[in-house]
Amino acid sequence: MGEALNDNSEISVGDDQQQTAAYVFDMLIGLSSAARQTDLTFLAYLLEMAGSEASRVAEGKNSKGKSAPSPRAKRAAR
Q1: Which domain, by its residues, includes 48?
Q2: CA–CA dist 45, 57 (Å, integer)
Q3: Is residue 52 within 8 Å of 59, Cβ to Cβ?
Q4: What pLDDT is stored for residue 73 in this prediction?
């Protein structure tokens, strides 16, 4: 089995959940493509499902597809 990645460098994706989700989505698309090209069908499927969720979050929707409250609205509710 290959050596686990242990990269302690920080990835600058911002503190915003939507920005982070968009970054994760981009990474998952590449990983899914690599898995499909090597016939790792189930792994590709799982990565695509995770990508679908990341896409929803990046668009400002929660897991159920409803619009999530904006960060400003969350702060105001505190």
Answers
A1: 16-59
A2: 19
A3: no
A4: 54
Position 29 confidence tier, pLDDT thresholds 50, 70, 90? very high
Amino acid identity, residue 7?
Answer: D
Residue 69 in any domain: the answer is: no
Are 28 and 50 a contacting pair, CB within 8 Å?
A: yes
Name the residue with tokens 């929803």.
Answer: 56
DSSP string, 5-31: P---PPP---S-HHHHHHHHHHHHHHH
Per the structure, the count of domains in the chain is 1
Contact status, residue 54 vs residue 22, Cβ threshold 8 Å = yes
Question: 33 near 66, Cβ under 8 Å?
Answer: no
